[in-house]
Amino acid sequence: MNKPNRVLVTGNHGYIGSVMAPALARAGYDVVGLDADYFMECTLVPDLANIPTIVKDIRTVTPADLRGFDAVIHLAALSNDPIGNLNAEWTKEINLDGTVRLAQMAKDAGVRRFLFSSSCIMYGMSGADTVDETSPLAPETEYARSKVKAEAALRELADARFSPTYCRNGTIYGLSPRMRFDTVLNDLTARAYTTGEVEISSDGTPWRPVVHVQDIARAFQAVLEAPLEVVHNEAFNIGADKLNHQIRELAEIVADTVPGCRISFKHESGADQRTYKARFAKFAGAFPEFHFNWTARDGARELYESFKANKLTAADFNDRRFTRLRWLRHLVDDGRVNGNLFWSEAAGRAA
Ligand SMILES: NC(=O)c1ccc[n+]([C@@H]2O[C@H](COP(=O)([O-])OP(=O)(O)OC[C@H]3O[C@@H](n4cnc5c(N)ncnc54)[C@H](O)[C@@H]3O)[C@@H](O)[C@H]2O)c1
Questions:
Q1: Distance, CA of 101 to CA of 323 (rounded, Å)
Q2: Atom 43, ligand 1: which residue's CA is nearest?
Q3: Is the CB of 79 under 6 A from ligand 1?
Q4: Does residue 8 line the site of ligand 1, with CB under 6 A?
Q5: Which residue segments constitute the domains of the chain, with CATH numbers given?
Q6: Over the Cα atoms of the chain, what is R_g?
Q7: For residue range 218-234, what is the model confidence (pLDDT) as tens digits?
Q8: Which of 21, 85, 199, 236 has the most beta carbons within 10 angstroms of its beta carbon?
Q9: Is the pTM value of this prediction over 0.90?
Q10: DSSP of 283-344, one letter per residue?
């Protein structure tokens, strides 16, 4: 089969999508986006390209929206753990039911490949071992459960004409137009730059696999271009073994990068000590040519340089626009989205 050419990227206006969709367009793909545009006002740096976008909720897509695509890259989701605590039903409806509905329509429309943006968080954070794709899944939050259940449902759809792939990402960092400061390295670097202090509530020993957003974009492109037999109905941890870091190391990298900042470890008894390290051998074996270009150190440097160039302030860092949970809560409180997280007719997107 020829490589896919026409690709629908859902969630293309989010943190990952606003880097990935332009990267795919630059690589020669005919890219169309689909996004509910919850975060269009949450822009830190200008968009990299103007990708034609269907402004729509994935819960209301129709078969016509899916027709003519060779592949769907499905990024659209409520993407962090605490949002599930705000309203578990939204996470289930969008991340699970919305995903299954979208995939079923894609399959019916003849879309061949479906890349699902999943997460290593589904292994839980017992800290027991290094986790790989064969490890038991132990989701601890509504968000993580939505990823586990969505993968399971997508497996049921896999057959000779529909090839889902489950891309289980580590925690992502790096500059994006739709910036998030609620992921670990982005948070630490922005905090250090705007306040001069990095206070870690734990003792800094927990592990996290981290990956740069541009490397994620390239890794998804590699999956998109892989022979179907390599990726059909397969899960891959996306990252590299050397990108597992202890929070302490990440904080030290940030302290080396941001002049004059101080780090402290508070060793609080109730601090988040959950930890997990992922193994990435399966991805490395399937994609031997692929190289993760970014290190956490390069990423902290990129963020620091961009914060300097854009004169990031503490007010920007604390602004609700860059924390997904706080922005969604704001949209709800202002009545701009309704209780089901659909834009309100009167006071919605244009407000
Ligand atoms: N950022 C990370 O560290 C990370 C790690 C692992 C997995 N992921 C996964 O990658 C994907 C993208 O993450 P992100 O960081 O870019 O998140 P994000 O919140 O920045 O972007 C998500 C995008 O999806 C859109 N969206 C949300 N609900 C929608 C709906 N019902 N209909 C249409 N569009 C909708 C939003 O408007 C937004 O543009 C998610 O599936 C997330 O779970 C992210």
A1: 28
A2: 79
A3: yes
A4: no
A5: 6-173+211-243+275-293+324-333 (3.40.50.720)
A6: 19
A7: 999 999 999 999 999 99
A8: 21
A9: yes
A10: HHHH-TT------HHHHHHHHHHHHHHTT--HHHHH-GGGSHHHHHHHHHHTTSB-TTSPBP
